[in-house]
């Protein structure tokens, strides 16, 4: 033949009901696997559907050079007739140029989305056209993995687990922002955006917040700053626990990690350190003053966000120490694993409460002033109570039964607060 076409003719012919599998996959990806809608549209106007999916050339596609032309459209070299390849758009190029084109794109991580090399032509290349052009089985395997990734990511009911090197695919009946956990690597994430689970903050807001936190102009010095000076003796102190109640190892001064105020003066209002106080006259001040106030507000919420993040890491170490203590007491016949189960439950609940509270700060940062902004303050109270009770559980012996009862009372209060409708991810 003078010109070698993909599948000899256009792979999708509207006059027939036959669609090649490789092309059908591209159609499904383009329309996010909405099979019923695709079938309805294919029956009513197949040409329009296939053109929209960029698997069939549109009527405005420019004509192809005559078969007598033996010049490659890319390298402009004269080649043998059997060395020219073309898609249904009939833009012909030599096999070497096709191979280089596909190889470069696959090495860049492209699966679905490799299109014709001709200018202003967006016709997609099916996998059975690309695979024979790729040199070596290793590159072909990469291309197949990229295709699988793109097939899954385009499906409205599927998501790849974001865990490191995890091949699990998560399927849900109703695609929305929801908490999912991988059965293989235990990764917990939001199904809609594949970011770590972030209720009560919605997906667009958490993306804005994480982008803002990644801006070195505002946060570089604060992300790395995990130490503060004692407000009494000025010795440098590194936080080694999850609680904000700090005691200087040198002068024994008790103070709040967040505001550096005397812990005794906090009284019953120690949760005020998690409540940002806005300047009511800021709108009447200069732009410089407004900029300083905006930065102050951001740093207020970021510092508390980062504080909870570090506390979660430290409390994970605390949980490991609890496991070791339980093992030691069980080995010394001081009860069974069941007897000490409430300690593990308390540590897990404390971590869950802190995790939820951490994600209220981006939510509060972007929230307009009003009654709903008191959410952070309301959530902080049961967490503090739970932390105080958890300390008693750890430090006192011989009152396990009493502490267990108190623990479940606080647990019910925490769950009642953290399951209010206001905490659900906005739909």
From TrEMBL:
<keyword id="KW-0677">Repeat</keyword>
<dbReference type="Pfam" id="PF01485">
    <property type="entry name" value="IBR"/>
</dbReference>
<keyword id="KW-0863">Zinc-finger</keyword>
<dbReference type="InterPro" id="IPR044066">
    <property type="entry name" value="TRIAD_supradom"/>
</dbReference>
<keyword id="KW-0862">Zinc</keyword>
<dbReference type="Pfam" id="PF22191">
    <property type="entry name" value="IBR_1"/>
</dbReference>
<dbReference type="InterPro" id="IPR047556">
    <property type="entry name" value="Rcat_RBR_TRIAD1"/>
</dbReference>
<dbReference type="InterPro" id="IPR045840">
    <property type="entry name" value="Ariadne"/>
</dbReference>
<dbReference type="InterPro" id="IPR047555">
    <property type="entry name" value="BRcat_RBR_TRIAD1"/>
</dbReference>
<keyword id="KW-0479">Metal-binding</keyword>
<dbReference type="InterPro" id="IPR002867">
    <property type="entry name" value="IBR_dom"/>
</dbReference>
<protein>
    <recommendedName>
        <fullName>RBR-type E3 ubiquitin transferase</fullName>
        <ecNumber>2.3.2.31</ecNumber>
    </recommendedName>
</protein>
<dbReference type="InterPro" id="IPR013083">
    <property type="entry name" value="Znf_RING/FYVE/PHD"/>
</dbReference>
<comment type="pathway">
    <text>Protein modification; protein ubiquitination.</text>
</comment>
<dbReference type="InterPro" id="IPR017907">
    <property type="entry name" value="Znf_RING_CS"/>
</dbReference>
<dbReference type="GO" id="GO:0008270">
    <property type="term" value="F:zinc ion binding"/>
</dbReference>
<dbReference type="Pfam" id="PF19422">
    <property type="entry name" value="Ariadne"/>
</dbReference>
<dbReference type="InterPro" id="IPR001841">
    <property type="entry name" value="Znf_RING"/>
</dbReference>
<feature type="domain" description="RING-type">
    <location>
        <begin position="68"/>
        <end position="277"/>
    </location>
</feature>
<keyword id="KW-0808">Transferase</keyword>
<dbReference type="GO" id="GO:0016567">
    <property type="term" value="P:protein ubiquitination"/>
</dbReference>
<keyword id="KW-0833">Ubl conjugation pathway</keyword>
<feature type="domain" description="RING-type">
    <location>
        <begin position="233"/>
        <end position="273"/>
    </location>
</feature>
<dbReference type="Pfam" id="PF26000">
    <property type="entry name" value="UBA_ARIH2_N"/>
</dbReference>
<dbReference type="GO" id="GO:0061630">
    <property type="term" value="F:ubiquitin protein ligase activity"/>
</dbReference>
<dbReference type="InterPro" id="IPR031127">
    <property type="entry name" value="E3_UB_ligase_RBR"/>
</dbReference>
């Amino acid at each position: 033949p003078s010109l070698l076409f993909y599948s000899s003719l256009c792979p999708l012919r509207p006059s027939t009901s036959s669609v090649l599998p490789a092309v059908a996959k591209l159609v499904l990806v383009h329309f996010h696997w909405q099979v019923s809608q695709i079938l309805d549209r294919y029956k009513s106007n197949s040409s329009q559907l296939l053109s929209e999916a960029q698997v069939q050339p549109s009527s405005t596609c420019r004509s192809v050079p005559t078969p007598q032309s033996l010049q490659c459209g890319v390298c402009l070299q004269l080649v043998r007739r059997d060395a020219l390849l073309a898609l249904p758009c009939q833009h012909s190029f030599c096999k070497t140029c096709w191979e280089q084109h596909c190889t470069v794109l696959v090495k860049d991580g492209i699966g679905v989305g490799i299109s014709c090399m001709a200018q202003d032509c967006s016709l997609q290349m099916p996998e059975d056209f690309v695979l024979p052009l790729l040199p070596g089985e290793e590159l072909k395997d990469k291309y197949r993995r990229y295709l699988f990734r793109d097939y899954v990511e385009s499906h409205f009911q599927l998501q790849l687990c974001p865990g490191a090197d995890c091949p699990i695919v998560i399927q849900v009946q109703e695609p929305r922002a929801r908490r999912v956990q991988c059965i293989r690597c235990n990764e917990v994430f939001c199904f809609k955006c594949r970011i770590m689970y972030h209720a009560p903050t919605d997906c667009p807001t958490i993306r804005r917040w994480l982008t803002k936190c990644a801006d070195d102009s505002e946060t570089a010095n604060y992300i790395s700053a995990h130490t503060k000076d004692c407000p009494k003796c000025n010795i440098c102190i590194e936080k080694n626990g999850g609680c904000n109640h700090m005691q200087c190892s040198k002068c024994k001064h008790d103070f709040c990690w967040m505001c550096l105020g005397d812990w005794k003066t906090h009284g019953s209002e120690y949760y005020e350190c998690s409540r940002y106080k806005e300047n009511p006259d800021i709108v009447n001040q200069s732009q410089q003053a407004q900029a300083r106030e905006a930065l102050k507000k951001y740093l207020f919420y970021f510092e508390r966000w980062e504080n909870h993040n570090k506390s979660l890491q430290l409390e994970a170490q605390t949980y490991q120490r609890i496991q070791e203590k339980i093992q030691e007491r069980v080995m010394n016949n001081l009860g069974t694993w069941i007897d000490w189960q409430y300690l593990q439950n308390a540590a897990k609940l404390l971590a869950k409460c802190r995790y939820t509270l951490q994600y209220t700060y981006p939510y509060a940062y972007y929230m307009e002033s009003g009654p709903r902004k008191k959410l952070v303050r309301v959530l902080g109270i049961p967490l503090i109570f739970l932390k105080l009770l958890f300390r008693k559980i750890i430090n006192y012996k011989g009152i396990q039964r009493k502490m267990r009862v108190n623990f479940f009372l606080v647990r019910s209060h925490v769950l009642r607060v953290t399951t209010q409708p206001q905490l659900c991810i906005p739909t």
